[in-house]
Design goal:
GO terms for molecular function: protein-arginine rhamnosyltransferase activity. It catalyses: dTDP-beta-L-rhamnose + L-arginyl-[protein] = N(omega)-(alpha-L-rhamnosyl)-L-arginyl-[protein] + dTDP + H(+). By secondary structure, the chain is α/β, with parallel strands linked by helices. The protein is built from 15 helices and 14 strands. Helix 1 packs across helix 15 and helix 12 crosses helix 13. The chain is globular and about 70 Å long.
């Protein structure tokens, strides 16, 4: 059994802590590793893990030792493997502790997920640092070579069983205060602020098939309130506009969010963590990518679309691409949804195929453990 330190600096959303918490849990539960997760924003962690005490300096949850990453840093012995998630800067004293071990720590920088081809030439390469240690860059990805995707053992089997049981879905939705009506399409919306949203909501409002839009607490809620012409929205609020019913849900723990994705016919997601989980749901998805300076995010979006659409029928690929690009550009949705809406059944089959294909690849946690074993 190896010891692991995972450092997470929460920037402005929950994707960083979402990824690192899933990884820490999986390393402990499935690989028997001793894991410490260092978090600089305990309040953010408590949002995705309601059992957590945001005031605790040290707590053990799901076999993981969760520690508050305080400043100034209180020195501790370094672990066998030290992961800095998404290029967060390790404390200088901890870098020194890594170097002074009898066998220096393996230092990994866990990069952001990307479908871009260039990551294959950089994945797992070392970079000698000023302190004398080499840092290895580990890139999660959808193709080889890469670090793969986070996926717990048995995840797809659990998802299939849940989706095959209407009663299990209804029971879960009822726990959130949701009652699905006959013939109603379920859509989840977890996104950043988006000026394209009103155009889509208008099309859902005017559609032949009724939709229930489930909106967990988050940044997009203000845009939804503006479209509904209400001052504020709170958990439990329900508003009806013709064929569209909107219901606000609480921010939920990760496992509950997975089940929400599994229930829905379409999932609009954002960032990295919810993006991957929506793919494992095997349902149509709409990705709102995190915007970067100089439009650098568009290359990542295009790279994923190229890969995701490669196996799709040409008309579905074209409609999907048009809608995704318009959604991320903040407008121009006129006519883009109608064609895609008609293809939702076909898209569902393709989404399941995609999840199955990605599910055949080794997962991120397993690759990290193997990388350490090979490095020894």
């Amino acid at each position: 059994m190896a010891s692991w330190d995972i450092f997470c600096s929460v920037v402005d959303n929950y994707g960083d802590i979402g990824v690192t918490w899933r990884l820490a849990r999986q390393l402990a539960a499935e690989h028997g590793q001793a894991v410490r997760l260092w978090v600089d924003e305990p309040q953010a962690f408590a949002r995705i893990c309601p059992r957590a005490d945001p005031a605790a300096h040290v707590q053990c949850l799901d076999g993981v030792e969760v520690r508050a990453w305080g400043r100034p840093w209180a020195p501790v012995a370094a672990a066998d493997v030290v992961i800095e998630a998404f290029a967060c800067e390790l404390p200088e004293a901890h870098r020194q502790a890594m170097r002074e071990r009898k066998r220096p720590s393996l230092w990994l920088n866990l990069e952001y997920l990307s479908a871009e081809e260039w990551i294959g030439s950089c994945h797992a390469l070392p970079s000698l640092q000023a302190c004398g240690l080499s840092k290895y860059f580990f890139f999660p990805g959808f193709r080889e070579p890469s670090g793969g995707l986070l996926r717990e053992a048995g995840l797809l089997e659990r998802r299939r069983r849940f989706q095959a049981s209407v009663s299990a879905q209804d029971e879960f939705l009822a726990s959130l205060g949701v009652r699905r009506k006959v013939g109603e399409r379920l859509i989840s919306l977890f996104a950043y602020e988006n000026p394209a949203l009103p155009g889509w909501l208008e099309q859902l409002r005017d559609a032949r098939q009724p939709s229930l839009l489930l909106v967990p607490e988050g940044r997009v809620l203000a845009d939804v309130a503006d479209w509904l012409r209400v001052a504020t929205l709170a958990v439990g609020d329900v508003h009806v506009r013709d064929a569209l019913r909107v219901q606000v849900l609480p921010f939920m723990a990760q496992d509950d969010y997975d089940r929400l994705l599994w229930c829905c016919d379409l999932n609009a997601v954002r960032g990295e963590d919810s993006f991957v989980r929506a793919q494992w749901a095997g349902r149509p998805l709409l990705w709102h990518i995190y915007r970067q300076e100089e439009e650098a995010h568009l290359a990542k979006l295009e790279a994923f679309l190229e890969l995701y659409c490669a196996g799709l029928p040409a008309d579905l690929a074209e409609n999907l691409r048009t809608f995704w690009l318009a959604w991320n550009a903040g407008g121009g949705l006129a006519g883009a949804w109608e064609g895609l809406e008609r293809q939702l059944p076909e898209w569902r089959r393709e989404a399941q195929r995609w999840a199955d294909e990605q599910g055949m690849r080794p997962d991120l946690a397993a690759r990290l453990v193997q990388f350490y074993a090979d490095w020894l």
